[in-house]
Design a protein that fits this description.
about 200 residues; 4-stranded antiparallel β-sheet
Length: about 200
């Protein structure tokens, strides 16, 4: 996984190979960095498919390494400000887009938090309605199976949904580096997180 950025935009890309030995090879790392730079120059935001230049670099990797390297995915953001974090094993990473002002250490910390906690979205508004309904339905069934009546089961399900969203949406989560505060509390006035992409190698 590699992340590249310039003033106006940033990308995260994933290139897979068969063994960790090759993935740590200097030539492979350099090639992935070059692929990220090529992805940065694409004119399209969002999902990045491999163009001819990226495909050629990957083909060259297959020849030089003897392994089945492949471009897996990429994502590009434009506008705003960016932060990123790649875990030391190179297998998990986050690219963050935000508006406003944040200290570099806070931006990095939030990216680390996203890598470790894998939130479903920035806030409850980002969680699909069908996912919320499934959580609610499971909670109602669980309460009824425990002998609760319809009204109590409904109330219990609302609490379960609220707790699930608190634990699994970014702004409501307790900060991984200081659990006495939340991600929302780290953001100064006028600062908003607009998007993030989190990758785990191979998933």
């Amino acid at each position: 996984i590699c992340i590249a950025s310039k003033e106006c935009c940033a990308v995260i890309v994933e290139v897979r190979t068969e063994t960790d030995f090759i993935a740590r090879n200097e030539n492979f790392v350099e090639a992935v960095e070059n692929i990220a730079e090529l992805a940065l120059e694409t004119g399209v935001d969002g999902e990045i498919t491999a163009n001819d230049a990226i495909t050629k670099l990957v083909d060259d990797l297959r020849i030089t390494t003897g392994e089945n390297a492949n471009y897996s995915r990429g994502f590009k953001y434009s506008g705003g400000k960016f932060g990123d974090y790649i875990h030391h094993d190179g297998k998990r990473a986050c690219l963050l887009q935000f508006e406003g002002d944040m200290e570099a250490a806070t931006v990095k910390g939030i990216c680390q938090h996203i890598v470790f906690h894998d939130p479903m979205g920035i806030s409850a508004d980002d969680v699909p309605a069908d996912k919320i309904e499934q959580i609610r339905a499971d909670a109602i069934k669980e309460a009824k199976d425990a002998g609760k009546n319809e009204e109590i089961a409904e109330k219990m399900s609302e609490g379960k949904v609220r707790k699930h969203l608190q634990e699994h949406t970014l702004l409501a989560q307790k900060y991984v580096l200081d659990e006495s505060t939340t991600i929302q509390a780290l953001l100064g006035e006028g600062t908003t997180i607009t998007a993030f992409t989190r990758y785990t190698l191979g998933s």
